[in-house]
From TrEMBL:
Entry-linked Pfam families: ETF
PANTHER family registered for this protein in UniProt: ELECTRON TRANSFER FLAVOPROTEIN BETA-SUBUNIT, ELECTRON TRANSFER FLAVOPROTEIN SUBUNIT BETA
Chain's role: The electron transfer flavoprotein serves as a specific electron acceptor for other dehydrogenases. It transfers the electrons to the main respiratory chain via ETF-ubiquinone oxidoreductase (ETF dehydrogenase).
Superkingdom in the source lineage: Bacteria
One GO location term (cellular component): cytosol
Cofactor field: FAD
Name of the protein in question: Electron transfer flavoprotein subunit beta
Organism: Nesterenkonia sedimenti
A GO MF label: electron transfer activity
Positions of the Electron transfer flavoprotein alpha/beta-subunit N-terminal domain: 22-224
Family the entry assigns: Belongs to the ETF beta-subunit/FixA family.
Length: 268
């Protein structure tokens, strides 16, 4: 079985974000997205469960990332957590890609990787619920469609693989659902699904020897037109800093002061 996890290099939330001349967040510093650790952990748990129940089963976990050179740091973290191999899609034509272009490029990469490395294995593609920088959550469904109309099971709070199908628990509104689909399939994993493991020193050292393959659009047989974004960013500016709230001291007129404030702000 081949479990392919998608990961992303995102701006470090601990650092101040700067918008560059191209109206986009400068990514000189980045990390593996926290939400991408959950699909990696899910893949590792599936592998452990399958290899325990059927020792003859071989499960390969790979991590795929799309981004510039700096994205390799996030891919390295995915290998330290436990992925067996990494693939880095790095092409200047993909700079500032929107979700349309992103899903097209990633679908091409997944097809290429699976065809050339594990063509005879069942394929399960795992993603995070969203990325911390884009937060659209739309890529998994688009990806499933581009991969030949695969089933897209989104917002999974738990998942297991049973024979040739994946079973997912998910929450939709105020309803809990259990759904299943045959493999191959695409599943987006939420931050409620598990508790990602922290790589120890042994895992960090082991990751240094794991293979990483860099891919370009040409390697995938894709042209720049095939991954051309549909959306253009025409303006971007930092959000205004939050102003300090007004403190009301209760000297016996706190209720009146609060009512006056709410009326002033148009909230009454």
């Amino acid at each position: 079985m081949h479990i392919l996890t998608l990961v992303k290099w995102v701006p470090d939330a601990q650092l101040e974000r700067t918008i560059g001349e191209d109206r986009r967040v400068e990514r000189t510093e980045g990390v593996l997205g926290e939400l991408d650790e959950y699909p990696i952990e899910a893949a590792l748990q599936i592998r452990e469960a399958l290899e325990k129940s059927a020792p003859e089963t071989t499960v390969r976990v790979t991590a795929l990332i799309m981004g510039p050179d700096g994205a390799s740091t996030a891919l390295k973290k995915a290998l330290q957590i436990g992925a067996d191999e990494g693939f880095h899609l790095d092409d200047e034509q993909l700079a500032a890609a929107d979700i349309y272009a992103t899903s097209a490029a990633l679908a091409g990469a997944i097809t290429h990787i699976h065809k050339n490395h594990d063509a005879d294995s069942q394929l399960l593609v795992l993603t995070g619920m969203a990325s911390e920088d884009g937060e659209s959550g739309a890529v998994p469904a688009q990806l499933a469609q581009r991969l030949g109309g695969l089933a897209a099971l989104t917002q999974a709070t738990s998942l297991t693989v049973e024979s040739d199908r994946v079973v997912v628990d998910r929450v939709s509104g105020n309803t809990r659902q259990k759904v299943a689909a045959g493999l191959p399939a695409v599943v987006s994993v939420t931050d409620q699904a598990n508790e990602p493991r922290y790589p120890n020193f042994k895992a960090i050292m082991k990751a240094r020897k794991k293979p990483v393959t860099t891919l370009s659009l040409a390697d995938l047989g894709l042209t720049a037109i095939a991954v051309q974004s549909k959306i253009s960013l025409i303006a971007a500016e930092p959000r205004p800093e939050r102003e300090a709230g007004q403190i009301i001291h209760d000297d016996g007129t706190a209720g009146t002061q609060l009512a006056d404030y709410l009326e002033k702000e148009g909230l009454l």
